[in-house]
From TrEMBL:
PROSITE patterns to which the protein is assigned, alphabetical: GUANYLATE_CYCLASE_2 (PS50125)
A GO molecular-function annotation: adenylate cyclase activity
Transmembrane regions listed in the UniProt entry: 20-37, 57-80, 92-116, 136-162
GO BP of this protein: cyclic nucleotide biosynthetic process; intracellular signal transduction
Keywords on record: Membrane, Transmembrane, Transmembrane helix
InterPro entries: A/G_cyclase (IPR001054), Adenylyl/Guanylyl_Cyclase_3/4 (IPR050697), Nucleotide_cyclase (IPR029787)
The protein, known as: Guanylate cyclase domain-containing protein
Ranges of residues in domain Guanylate cyclase: 188-317
Superkingdom as given in the UniProt entry: Bacteria
Keyword Transmembrane helix in annotation: yes
Amino acid sequence: MSFKFTRYTGRQLKFYARRAIWIFISWVTISNIMFFYDYYTLYANKVLTSAYDFKQAFVANLIVCVMAGLIGGIITVNLMEQWLRKYVFPRALLQIIVAYTVAALVISFAGALYYYSEELGVSILNYEVLEQIGPFFTEWIFIKNFFLWLIIVVVTLIILMVNDKYGPGVFPDYLMGRYFRPKQERRIFMFADIKNATSIAEILEEEKYFNFLKDFFRDIAPAIVQTRGEVYQYVGDEVVISWKMKQGLKSGNAIQCYYSMRKIINQKKQRYIDRYGFYPKFKVGYHYGNVMVGEIGQIKREIVFSGDVLNTASRIQALCNELEVGILASKEFADLQIKLPSGVKRIDLGTEKLRGKADEMKLVTYQRNTKREGTTL
């Protein structure tokens, strides 16, 4: 197994901290529900004896679930999720099982130390306590909890991966059937396209170019997730990202996404050059407006957006090369996006003619202080 330690920014830490808190709360809640279910089952069947100490058992369970929540939420789950993205499934699964087993043994050992020290009335470092712990790992309660929590960990990973696939908040909406019938929403859209993609594809040929795109879309994923964006679709060398208005405008998330993507690619620039001879330069276009959204398809169901705002955002992005900028937005959107990321300023470009549009549109671009480019995500 290889471990790579990354220096996280404030925005990244906030994202992972929020997710860790939710995992911690969920796992502690599940653990206590399981504890009280087992307790009342034993109580109802009159299996408990006078030797049973409820406080002792509850505190031992609390130690285990709090440690599981902290280790799982902060370290293990994030590491496991990275393995699932980085490695083929059999290798990732093996690493997950090994990491889970080590964590389960450490956490159970801590809980058993407390339980048996209280049971025997001696220090946790007493030899008698350590003698009791060995057999504990062969008891039914440990084996049952080991496999039950393995299922909980796997389900947590699946939820995180599916949530990333649909975008933050979309998966719950999908499960609740929110988009079963078409409805109108106001959204922000960003079209991101790799520059000179056709020339690069001709030089790299099919398989290598496919891996080039795969690396690009994988590398920029954290920038999208951490700015609360939702990937609508991948079209060749283009990715379409959308935000609900509140999420996109908050803290300049929609604009921040572009600069976060650019920073990630700049950090990995040499790796791309070594592997492909190129690194992905890209341009983006923004617009917002009303769209119809709903589920489409019978065999393969998808959530689809329909509206002129998508065509307009695509046309805006297409003007980036002509205007020699990496980022363009409609003035309508820019007027709403009052809060901008730190160090970013707006530059009005005047009125331009969009391909396929009868009316001209006022456009703006953004510029960031280059000294902040390497320090802020």
